[in-house]
Please model this.
Amino acid sequence: MSILINRPELEKKINEVAEVAGYLWQKGWAERNGGNITVNLTHEIDNEIRHLPPISGAISIGRTFPHLKGCYFYCKGANFRMRDLARRPMENGSIIRILDDCSSYVIVADQLVKPTSELASHLSMHNYLIGKGSSYKAALHTHPIDLIAMTHHPAFLKKDVLTHLLWSMIPETRAFCPRGLGIVPYALPGSFELADATIRELDEYDVVMWEKHGICAVGENVMEVFDMIDTLSKSAQIYLTAKSMGFEPEGMTLAQMEEMKKAFNLPK
Ligand code: 2HA
Ligand code: ZN
Model:
């Protein structure tokens, strides 16, 4: 029996993950097992769940996350497909609990589904967020075609070049992605090197591009995180459409950008 039965709050969180997983597939950003989602569910976990026997033994993560002791996460399963997760989230992902050693976890429910290959990056991000007192609960990694294409051009990898370009394509992008976009140079998928470089960027940004691989973002909930990536992708599409029509898009002027910043009281 699913752990979600008679737990409407938990079910709502998981359904939100499933809804976003469906959008990622529809967008063409989630080929095969591409991308991953994790959500910190610690606040939704009741005493009964806390006392359930785990369905796996302890699995080592290979690193210690001091702020994650006893935390619960929903994680997409490694090698499982977003398009399947969209319909059956508890068969294509699982809920894990970080053990008291802060460096291993057990699977709690519903099935023996091993978490995402990017667990190192995801847990590093959650650990970082809790450590700085953030209320963010969701982390999402996906493969948006337009934004990844832009990371194949060295000029776009320089600090804040992509941020300013994408902000200037349509006013919404600066309003809904106000901290801009960090850049992480290419690193092996699933590696601690990628995880470390990602959390260094989170100091300044909520969204980080992984060069020639994908995008990774954090926020209050998974829908908000999806919206940020979707907005950035819209800007990228406007840029690429203008280029394919044979001209360099003008972009909003600096004065128009400043006006937006003041009107919406934006941080940068
Ligand atoms: O989970 O996207 O980066 C599959 C990936 C790895
Ligand atoms: Zn990936």
Residues 34-35, 141, 143, 189, 213-214 surround zinc ion (ligand 2) (CB under 6 Å).
